[in-house]
């Protein structure tokens, strides 16, 4: 199969998934107890009769269900995710405005986890019974079992009282002036704790995974061959073994993207990070359904995009797939 | 050559469950996990008899630190309610949600995975597309939406957790069914005229059980974490006193008193740790290849 055809197929697949998410949103509005118009208005019982009539007309709520679905899908695909009456703004604008910080947080945490996790995993595989190995196992079991918001709160306590070095809330300091560069540094400074909280769980998992697959690969024939022909040990690890050991990490990281976004919702709430998670939290308190559904839709888009990217990265790292199709 | 004394020896050494149980007892992770879980269960189910304090009752000044008064050994929350009483009484609800949600997750997962793996073809294609779709939705956000749209009772919360977390189990079950469905004993069962239903539930499933038991143990832990997350966001059942509820209520007072959130969070951590360690131990026990490591 040619590359273009493959990409086209993946894109079509992604598009169908997007449609499915929209259909789910539509279903949720209709399954929810009460009048769909009330749900769309986002204020249970609080909306005026005039407003409800307006909603019924725009969404065709007096027409058959399939017409309603058609109207909903067409509007959504044109970028109209509805209107938030709580924030008095189009949902798309709200979501787009908050997506940047979330993507920054998730990407930083993920890259940090993959990079440091793989490094630790390689180190651990060098001495399977050593200190690093034990530490990786212990941290991964603890990280897996601790509620992520609790880990975040422990860091808040640690860095608010014991060692007040890092900021524990918000994305930047409003009172601080300075140019663009100062602002970037300030944001990175505020990013440290949230990204650490989110990253540490996955870091330990990736380290454990890398360790396991490294141990398996280091016992294989081609590694023995490489060693026998006198390849330096560093190169055996870094060049020969790691290239194969990293494949499961890429797969898992792609599969876990949805759960990382879920984690980000909690981490953002702990650190008042102004992303989609805090927006979701605020709009749930306000029962602002269009915004919540908009966030669900948009974050699913992020996952779909991440899966596409993983697919492409996988093709880059694993030549067998590239040629075999 | 070894001499076999009696047929009893063969039977004993061949029973895989017995062998797994022995391996489990030798795994330190599994035993530590069992120990932690027993401690947690004793604490929350026997605790009320020794410490009969109502967790809703205001007994002392708000935000009293631990050790400051004998009336509240672990301090009080923002309303002046006893934290220790809360820790003791909050356990059953958390464990209950974890178990119910875990059972829902495993049931949906096994049903979907079994049918997909057994029938293959169109059924498989269709079910796997649905599974994939559910994996695209960020689980916590989806559960948040479900709980917000309906009333957050303990059952809605459990059901929401189950609905968002079954895909992993489904994939695992499917993989096991695909592996087993063409083995000789399945063909044998088919050749003596066993119906599909019998083959799925009585022939294949029992042989796919080992990894599913491990997954079920881990799933309960994950469900407890999930419930804690929802409660932290204020989406738990407000009428059930749970550790998650304590965290959600105390969240805003974290800088006024570390114990308000730290202690219930620690209980959740301990419980989930217990389940993950038991899962690790079972995994070692069922997997003879890993035992050597």
Automatic annotation (TrEMBL), chain B:
Keywords of the record: Cell membrane, Membrane, Peptide transport, Protein transport, Transmembrane, Transmembrane helix, Transport
Pfam families per record: BPD_transp_1, OppC_N
Lipid bilayer topology: Multi-pass membrane protein
Entries under SUPFAM superfamilies matching the protein: MetI-like
Localization (cell): Cell membrane
Occurrences of domain ABC transmembrane type-1 (ranges): 91-279
Residues that span the membrane, as ranges: 28-51, 95-119, 140-164, 212-236, 257-278
Family: Belongs to the binding-protein-dependent transport system permease family.
UniProt xrefs under PANTHER family: D,D-DIPEPTIDE TRANSPORT SYSTEM PERMEASE PROTEIN DDPC-RELATED (PTHR43386:SF1), OLIGOPEPTIDE TRANSPORT SYSTEM PERMEASE PROTEIN APPC (PTHR43386)
Name of the molecule in the record: ABC transporter permease
Lineage: Bacteria, Pseudomonadati, Pseudomonadota, Alphaproteobacteria, Sneathiellales
């Amino acid at each position: 199969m040619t590359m273009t055809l493959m990409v086209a197929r993946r894109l079509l697949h992604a598009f169908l998934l997007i449609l499915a998410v929209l259909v789910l949103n539509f279903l949720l509005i209709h399954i929810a107890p009460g009048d769909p118009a009330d749900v769309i208005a986002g204020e249970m019982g609080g909306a005026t009769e005039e407003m409800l009539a307006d909603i019924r007309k725009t969404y065709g709520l007096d027409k058959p269900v399939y017409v309603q679905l058609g109207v909903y899908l067409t509007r959504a695909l044109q970028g109209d995710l509805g209107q938030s009456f709580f924030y008095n703004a189009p949902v798309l604008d709200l979501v787009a405005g908050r997506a940047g910080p979330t993507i920054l947080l998730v990407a930083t945490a993920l890259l940090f986890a993959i990079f440091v996790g793989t490094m630790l995993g390689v180190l651990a595989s060098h001495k399977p019974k050593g200190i690093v190995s034990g530490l990786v196992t212990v941290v991964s079991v603890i990280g897996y079992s601790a509620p992520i918001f609790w880990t975040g709160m422990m860091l808040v306590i640690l860095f608010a009282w014991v060692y007040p070095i890092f900021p524990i809330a918000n994305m930047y300091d409003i009172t601080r002036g300075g140019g663009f560069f100062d602002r970037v540094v300030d944001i990175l400074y505020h990013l440290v704790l949230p990204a650490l909280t989110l990253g540490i769980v996955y870091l330990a998992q990736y380290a454990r995974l890398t360790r396991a697959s490294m141990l398996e690969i280091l016992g294989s024939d081609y590694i023995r061959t490489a060693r026998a022909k006198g390849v330096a040990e560093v190169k055996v690890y870094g060049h020969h073994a790691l290239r194969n050991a990293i494949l499961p990490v890429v797969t898992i990281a792609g599969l876990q993207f949805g759960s990382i976004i879920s984690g980000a919702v909690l981490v953002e709430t702990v650190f008042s990070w102004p992303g989609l998670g805090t927006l979701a939290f605020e709009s749930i308190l306000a029962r602002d359904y269009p915004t919540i559904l908009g966030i669900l839709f948009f974050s699913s888009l992020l996952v779909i995009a991440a899966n596409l990217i993983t697919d492409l990265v996988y093709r880059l790292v694993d030549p067998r797939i590239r040629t075999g199709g | 050559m070894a001499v076999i004394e009696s047929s009893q020896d063969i039977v004993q050494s061949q029973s895989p469950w017995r062998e797994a149980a022995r391996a489990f007892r030798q795994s330190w992770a599994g035993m530590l996990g069992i120990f932690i879980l027993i401690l947690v269960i004793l604490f929350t189910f026997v605790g009320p008899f020794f410490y009969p304090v109502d967790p809703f009752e205001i007994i002392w000044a708000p935000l009293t630190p631990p050790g400051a008064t004998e009336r509240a050994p672990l301090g009080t929350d923002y309303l002046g309610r006893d934290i220790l009483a809360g820790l003791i009484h909050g356990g059953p609800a958390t464990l209950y949600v974890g178990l119910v949600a875990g059972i829902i997750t495993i049931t949906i997962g096994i049903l979907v995975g079994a049918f997909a793996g057994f029938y293959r073809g169109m059924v498989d294609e269709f079910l796997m597309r649905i599974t994939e779709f559910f994996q695209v939705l960020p689980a916590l956000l989806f559960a948040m939406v479900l709980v917000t749209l309906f009333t957050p009772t303990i059952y809605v919360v459990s059901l929401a957790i189950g609905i968002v977390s079954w895909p992993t189990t489904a994939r695992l079950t499917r993989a096991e069914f695909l592996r087993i469905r063409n083995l000789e004993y399945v063909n044998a069962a088919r050749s003596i005229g066993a119906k599909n239903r019998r083959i799925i539930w009585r022939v294949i499933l029992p042989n796919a059980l080992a990894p599913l038991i491990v997954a079920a143990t881990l799933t309960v832990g994950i469900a407890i974490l999930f419930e804690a997350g929802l409660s932290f966001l204020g989406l738990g059942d407000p009428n059930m006193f749970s550790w998650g509820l304590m965290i959600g209520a105390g969240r805003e007072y974290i800088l006024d008193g570390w114990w308000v959130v730290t202690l219930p969070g620690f209980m959740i951590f301990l419980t989930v740790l217990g389940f993950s360690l038991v899962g690790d131990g079972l995994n070692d026990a069922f997997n003879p290849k890993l035992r050597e490591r």
